[in-house]
């Protein structure tokens, strides 16, 4: 690693100030950023650790919404987000137990890895991502692989999910890394169905609108029968071709609809 | 340099560390607690698992500066006060849960974290919990058997080697 200083503020305000320094970088749980630093793919002058900020940790639910602090680790979401079972289940299948004790929802959403799980949940749920400056709708937040609406130094303080009537996240794991080769989150609300796909597209997480339209009229796996997904623009690598991933999108969407509860 | 203070295996320590000092480096090189092993250094293998405030973490993927104020426990804290092997360690010896032993500190620390939350885990729960701990010798069966035994459960039905 290159050398850098680590600061550990205890409030969002102090963290925002620290992030105003040149080449400062926020550090969530570090489960992606620290490996990145080891490979010398990033060279911040200051890492601003968010792990000491209690005000951005915790899970609360109120009036059909569940709100999770940006600094909440995956293990806590798995244990405490029972009001949104599909979301708790997703958190409980990220990485391994030790990784889940460090990695955070805010870190995952800020990084927006094209194979990460949380972006699919946020987009399929129409979640609201709240930062120290503003609220951002999930539909506006994800802007391509590793790209989000966050400005320099902006901190994800919480994420609010409307709890659906039924939902499921189905992940087809890449057998070595256990990241999703393709993951699909389906969420059924009273007035709409939302389907978000991670792991597949070169543009990062996306909504499969044809499936949403078909499922809105008939929420069953059969409703997807006539649909197909193009392999154009899908990630193609040694783990699977674009066409293979496109095929998996439909398979995993069907499984998610069948499993939704 | 940043000054950090933490309680490691019951003793308070204060040291000056560089920002990029990993917990593994801090434990092994500053405190000379070399029981915590560095296998992959990429948070895959789990040989470096320690407990920070009671939770299992991969110490190769955490900075020492982030543990300021924390309570840290390493494999060195798992022995009994008289220096004999702790319950989990003894079970690993009794059931041949290690061969080369390189992964064992992480296995024992993960096992301890599991048993704290789930005192009587099923075989499937143990295997699932060990997803982030890799062993290249044993084929895992005897590790699973050891953890079942450490939790006071019958091990006669666990797959033999």
Describe the model:
The complex is a heterodimer of chains A (261) and B (161). With 261 residues, chain A is an alpha+beta fold. Chain A folds into three domains: 5-49, Uridine Diphospho-n-acetylenolpyruvylglucosamine Reductase, domain 2 (2-Layer Sandwich), CATH 3.30.43.10; 57-162, Uridine Diphospho-n-acetylenolpyruvylglucosamine Reductase, domain 3 (2-Layer Sandwich); 166-259, CO dehydrogenase flavoprotein, C-terminal domain (Enolase-like, domain 1, 2-Layer Sandwich), CATH 3.30.390. Helices cover 29% and strands 23% of the residues of chain A. Chain A contains ten helices and twelve strands. Chain A has helices at residues 12-18, 33-38, 74-80, 85-91, 97-100, 105-111, 118-124, 138-141, 209-217, 242-259; strands at 5-7, 24-27, 46-49, 59-62, 65-69, 128-131, 135-137, 156-162, 166-173, 180-188, 193-198, 206-207. Chain A has a five-stranded antiparallel β-sheet with strand order 4-5-8-6-7. In chain A, strands 9-10-11-12 form a four-stranded antiparallel β-sheet, with helices on both faces. Chain A has a three-stranded parallel β-sheet with strand order 1-3-2, with no helix packed on it. In chain A, helix 2 (33-38) links the parallel strand 2 and strand 3 (46-49). In chain A, helix 3 (74-80) runs antiparallel to helix 4. The radius of gyration of chain A is 18 Å and the shape is globular. Chain A starts with a strand and ends with a helix. Chain B is of the alpha+beta class and 161 residues long. Chain B folds into two domains: 2-77, Roll (Ubiquitin-like (UB roll)); 87-150, DNA polymerase, domain 1, CATH 1.10.150.120. Helix content of chain B is 29%, strand content 16%. Chain B contains five helices and five strands. Chain B has helices at 23-30, 87-94, 104-117, 123-129, 141-150; strands spanning 2-8, 11-17, 49-52, 55-58, 71-73. Chain B is elongated and about 55 Å long. Chain B starts with a strand and ends in an 11-residue tail after the last helix. The relative contact order of chain B is 0.16. The interface between A and B is medium-sized, with 28 and 28 residues.
